[in-house]
Amino acid sequence: MKRSASLQLLLSSLFLGLNLATTSDGDGPFTYTGFAGANLSLDGMATVTPSGLLRLTDGNGQDKGHAFHPDPLRFRKAPGGAVQSFSVSFVFAILSIYPNLSSQGMAFLVCPTKNLSATGTRGLLGIFNRQSNGNASNHIFAVELDTIQNSEFQDINDNHIGIDVNSILSAESYYTGYYEDSQGDFRNITLNSHEAMKVWVDYDEETTKISVTIAPLKMSKPIRPLLSTTYNLSIVLTDEAYVGFSSTTGNIDSQHYVLGWSFGMNQPAPAIDVTKLPKLPGEGPKKHSSMLMETFLPIATGIFVLAIGVAILQFMRRRSRFAELREDWEIEFGPHRFSYKDLFRATQGFKDKYLLGVGGFGRVYRGVLPSSKLEVAVKRVSHDSRQGMKEFIAEVVSIGRLRHRNLVPLLGYCRRRGELLLVYEYMSNGSLDKYLYEQDGKPSLNWVHRFHIIKGIASGVLYLHEEWDQVVIHRDIKASNVLLDAEMNARLGDFGLAKLYDHGIDPQTTHVVGTMGYLAPELARTGRASPLTDVFAFGVFLLEVTCGRRPVEQTKQVDNGVSMLVDWVLEQWHKGLLARAVDPRLQDEFDTHQTSLVLKLGLLCSHPVPDARPSMRQVMQYLDGDMKLPELMPESLSFGIQALLPSEGFDSHIMSHASTLSDGAFTGISGGR
């Protein structure tokens, strides 16, 4: 019996080895049907679950995970020769707490090393860092499965597959989907669908063609690949290299799984038996306890009947406490709607100790959603039905689809009678104005960080104006609406005043909203917001960040007691003292060329004539040094913003902000309708 048991154990071990089908000659092929017992090289968040799933990230915090086949593969038959044909197949799945939201993505990669500890997270997918990105010395080939649109890296949308060579800027990318046959219709696939799906990556030595194909798990490989490009990997890959996966996560709780994987050199990747793959969380067979039900069902029924009366009474008492306003037309917006009960519990009843700030439109609370444990900021806004609530909710939901590394994600909303609640992703380091004006003992930011913030917000506004499906006019760009995440990256928040319209359409807005000091002069005359009114506010923001001064300040040095920052900076330039406009707390530790550029650009953006202002694309080109700022003289910008801003026609709350700004009132994620 002991001998039989030993033999059975030996056969099981041999079967496991055959099941993994790994080879030691450095050429493959290999197959992983699940990863239980696999000798993978793991780092970061990567782990193999007890069920045999390879989990690259678990969604807890902003981190990365890598998993590699343990041995390097010989990609060339002889040193210096051509890279051989190879084929890869793998099954993956991306799970997040929200079906329509995900945090970053994952990638298959071929790399000369397994040590990627110095790589970056977020948009860099744990493959590159900002110094190495784009360097030929990387010798990296990757296929990214990306669920975030990052305009900095020229992503086409927030659901795409890309072929990357030594850079996170894809050599070729396309919307995720598949073709039913060689001439068939294109079918979209959502990477973050909570469904397992299969990917094939093929490289042909003779044609140097790279092809990538994706399909639902139980579907055979489509004849026509999703995307393909010609790229000679012989000038990229080293003689020997490692193959594996990389993934990063962010503030949204997302998990990236690999269920199976195969590789072939000079042959197709071995088929993966999908029937033997481990199950994703939540896919296991349901447990039934029929005997238990038969025994206790009569007793449970009696208890239920008795308890139903008590439950009805409790329900009636609690109904008014958690009552929501919901109409039939809101069904189409379902995924973005939160229950009031969840938001009430997340903030422990909107207690004052969780209050982040008070703005002109409502109060903002920090909370933790009870089911997902996601930290959120909840803004309570009083709404006016005369504004067209259906159209407003449609815009809120549309804005909720914005995805950019420099925008605060709007996760959804909840509506009660007379009250609207907007739910944002929580930014742990608060608003930028705290750091500019040293509130709450916050340290002042150095110039390098300020310039990084300026470029980040410029990138976010460019995305709103030109790179999303519709034009989004923010209408309230200011330092208190710029929030800092856990890594001190700048995020533009508070889209409560934003206006959307289709590209090529003239926006019709006559209701002037915003904050005094950031409002373009033409708004007083026409009431019409446009991308150029956002550019004006961004120009004031540039001056605010560089000078460390508020756009409107109380002073006794002028007749009416109010000083406008734009006028003050222009006055310093007239006197030949532009450098003195820089925040004195920087103590001369700044790049004089950059500060001069930003101050002049801020004045140009805040020009009283709209057509004289640059577009946000031109602003980015100036900041990146790709285009030289036009030669400007202070005389050519001589204007008085204060004189151009009559109070007639402005909402009462706008004018009231002029005084609160100078008092340093914290607005957090302020604004709203």
Instruction: Determine the number of helices (DSSP H or I, runs of at least 4 residues).
Output: 12
CATH second-level architecture of the largest domain:
Orthogonal Bundle
Distance between the termini: 78 Å
Helix percent band: 10-25%
- What about the largest sheet? 8 strands, antiparallel
Calculate Rg over CA atoms. 29 Å
- Secondary-structure-based class equals alpha+beta
The overall pLDDT, averaged over residues, is 79
Annotation, overall tally of beta strands: 29
CATH domain topology of the largest domain: Transferase(Phosphotransferase), domain 1
CATH superfamily of the largest domain: Transferase(Phosphotransferase) domain 1
- Count of domains: 2
Low-confidence parts lasting 5 or more residues at pLDDT below 50? 1-24, 284-295, 642-673
Q: Briefly, what CATH class of the largest domain?
A: Mainly Alpha
Form type: globular
